[in-house]
Amino acid sequence: MLSVRLRHEFKGFVLDAAFEAPAGLTVLFGPSGSGKTTVVNAVAGLLRPQSGRIAVGNDVLTDSAQGLWLPPHRRGVGYVFQDSRLFPHLSVRQNLLFGHWFTGRGGGRAAHLDDVVDLLGIGHLLRRRPAALSGGERQRVALGRALLSHPRLLLMDEPLAALDQARKDEILPYLERLRDQAGLPILYVSHAAAEVARLATHVVMLTDGIVAVAGSVSRVLSDPAVAPLLGQDQTGAVLTARIAAQEPDGLTRLAIPAGTLFVPYVAAPPGTLLRLRILAQDVMIATEELHGISALNVIPARVRDLTDTAGGVLVRLDAGNQTILSRVTARSATALKLAPGMPVQAVLKAVSVAPGTIGVSGG
Amino acid sequence: MADWLTPEGWQAVRLSLRVSLWAVAASLPLGILVAYALARWRFPGHGVLNGLVHLPLVLPPVVTGYLLLVIFGRRGVVGQWLDQFGIVIAFRWTGAALAAAIMAFPLMVRAIRLAVEAVDPRLEQAASTLGAARPWVFLTVTLPLILPGILAGAILAFAKAMGEFGATITFVSNIPGQTQTLPSAIYAVLQVPGGEAAAARLVATAIAIAIAALFLSEWLSRAIARRIRGG
């Protein structure tokens, strides 16, 4: 568990943030200039905050009240930078073992070169120099280098931001595996909603140097107050489903507390947990039982509340114990006389499955 | 080959090489430290230090030699102090090395400083997050990356030391076998009527050494750059 409380004044900008990051992957989310990197640098010890306290479990890294400030090399905090920062004069293997060499004799989490190389699929790169790697390969090596420094906490500052979509897709599965297997708390900076929906177990939303919202990914992403920060076409709920069966027609049947969903084939055995992202703009609302409709996924729900936003009315629906968001026009909301407590049918036009999210509860 | 130069001529060449190598070797650690400090640290006296380092570059060499004599001569402030321990620099080859080192120092520091400034400080930050304390960051990241700059600075300083004349002759005079370096020897030979031929041979030797140093530096810096880029 990482706990952060810090205050730092820059010219014309004040960062005043406090949050806790439990085990799992906590995304520090917010627009550019909201202070995300400053927070991460303070945790790593690259920036000394004017006041505050940062602790991992019982180990205090910084406490201005006690005048305590550990230098970066004594923090045991792995840091994956946006620009990888591999050492150009060392081979991939030497880069990977750099931190291992300094921290290997200390305590911390034992990580072995072979395991990390396997996890990240970089065995064929070991003898190369960083200059001979692609962007995606570089980030994988940077990640391995941080893991091998025996960290008790992993920081990642927009590790995918400099990559194109293909390279992102190449790395995301590794990050998911790391989140689910390493048992290492991860603080991950991002301003991409899709990354949050796919990777986060917890979200800390930072705006103008202040924590706006914090909590589990499903709670934060279904919070109407967060919608304007995500942007209209990125607003959507994240929920967890279990694979019920593989249908003969090539679809996969999923069970959620509110009912059944059908999605294109997911290559995983029944019983596997999946993370679903359902964008608000892909959810229609009907007030009556539907007949003769092509949409496969219709689930019963109840209106919890309605929030006016720039792009229309955002309707929060309770479906079982999960939450779904739907965006409708003000005209429709009035015509349907939508009100809290009203039973409705949610029609899901699209459900995206984050691949490889096996074994994740999503809060 | 051996009679290409007179025994005195060869003596001057050997002395020049010894003086220059010692001048560079002894001042290199300080040169790296000063270059790093000027490039990376902000401290009171930064400008003063920078000015002091560059002073020999702009002062007339004779003035530098005179100041050395005042400070390091047997009656000088530092010279008297050193005399207590039986160390005498003035009019010895060690004095020639000191004069050469001071004259070459600005060139050495400039070359290394440029190399330090070219190192991305974010790489050093990354090293510190991986558990390396400051001295280790310097040894394992900064130093290997500035190696070509250090080499360039050292060769430049060596060439400058080989050619140093004004400060040397003022500080340690022109004693054959003691302080007569290659340039001093050329000067001395030219003072004698009919010495033109001997002078020309000494000059040719000086040119050969300079070119050899230049080629060596080029070859070495390519080899190092290849290692760093990892081709």
Automatic annotation (TrEMBL), chain B:
Belongs to the binding-protein-dependent transport system permease family. CysTW subfamily. It is a multi-pass membrane protein. The chain crosses the membrane at residues 20-39, 51-73, 93-116, 136-159, 198-220. GO terms for molecular function: molybdate ion transmembrane transporter activity. Gene3D superfamilies: MetI-like (1.10.3720.10). Part of the binding-protein-dependent transport system for molybdenum; probably responsible for the translocation of the substrate across the membrane. This is Molybdenum transport system permease. PANTHER family: MOLYBDENUM TRANSPORT SYSTEM PERMEASE PROTEIN MODB. Residues 13-215 form the ABC transmembrane type-1 domain. It is found in: Cell inner membrane; Cell membrane. GO terms for cellular component: plasma membrane. The keyword Cell membrane applies. Keywords: Cell inner membrane, Cell membrane, Membrane, Molybdenum, Transmembrane, Transmembrane helix, Transport.
